[in-house]
Amino acid sequence: MQKLAYSRYGPETVRLVDEWEAAIENMQRLSHEDKLIEANRFFNTRIQWAQDPDTWGRPDYWATPLETMGRGMADCEDFAIAKYITLILAGVDSSQLRITYVKAQLPSEGGPALTAHMVLAYYPSANADPLILDNLITEILPASQRSDLTPVYGFNSLGIWVGGARNPASREPESRLSRWRDLLRRAAEEGLG
């Protein structure tokens, strides 16, 4: 991945990719909870939040981890995707992770406002209260303690879940989410698939 990082983004990105790969190697020896902390911290401290039009010049783009590290900027989808892929590479089973589209209650001048947001949810067991990895609130908390978030749908490579459903509404996320399908294709081309 270093050659690709260098040719697309230059030496600074190669250093960040090296740090990422070392972090993933180190995470493989950690408990799942510590893996979550490390993945969350890695991206929340190294990547700056920015909207897609500022980063990519288009309204909505789902970036691979390499693209995120190359630009050094990401929106909430990119943070969730980077953490998802990092945790899978560190040995967390994809069935325990869901990239989750939520309505987030954010403070604003006229009072709290609902806005579209994406987080990564980790399920220690199938029916557990998931832990939420977020780029806005960096402390990892159970979903039951995140009253500011209302889940709309979650997905991973195995399916799509609507709201807080325990069973997937679809087991074909690539056919339902074109941005997810495109992201997986690009990640595979980068050697992550």
SSE map:
Layout: H1 2-9, H2 11-27, H3 32-46, E1 48-49, H4 52-56, H5 65-71, E2 73-74, H6 76-89, E3 97-106, E4 113-122, E5 131-133, E6 141-142, E7 149-155, E8 160-162, H7 173-176, H8 178-189
Parallel strand pairs: 1-2
Antiparallel strand pairs: 3-4, 3-7, 4-5, 5-6, 7-8
Helix pairs in contact: 1-2, 2-3, 2-5, 3-6
- Oligomeric status: single chain
Q: What is the mean pLDDT?
A: 91
Task: Briefly note the CATH topology name.
Answer: C8orf32 fold
Work out the strand percent.
15-25%
The radius of gyration computed from the alpha-carbon positions, rounded to a whole number of angstroms, is 16 Å
What is the class in the CATH system? Alpha Beta
State the low-pLDDT regions, or none. Answer: none
* Helical coverage, percent range: 40-55%
The N- and C-terminal alpha carbons lie at a distance of 12 Å
Q: How would the global form be characterised? A: globular
State the secondary-structure class: alpha+beta
Detailed description of the structure:
The chain is an alpha+beta fold. It has one domain: C8orf32 fold, CATH 3.10.620. The chain is 42% helix and 20% strand. The chain has helices at 2-9, 11-27, 32-46, 52-56, 65-71, 76-89, 173-176, 178-189; strands at 48-49, 73-74, 97-106, 113-122, 131-133, 141-142, 149-155, 160-162. The chain has a six-stranded antiparallel beta sheet with strand order 6-5-4-3-7-8. Helix 1 (2-9) runs antiparallel to helix 2, helix 2 packs antiparallel against helix 3 and helix 2 packs across helix 5. The longest helix is centred in the N-terminal third of the chain and has 17 residues, at 11-27. It is globular, with a radius of gyration of 16 Å. The two termini are 12 Å apart. The mean pLDDT is 91. It comes from Candidatus Marimicrobium litorale. It holds the Pfam family Peptidase_C93. InterPro entries: Transglutaminase-like_Cys_pept (IPR010319).
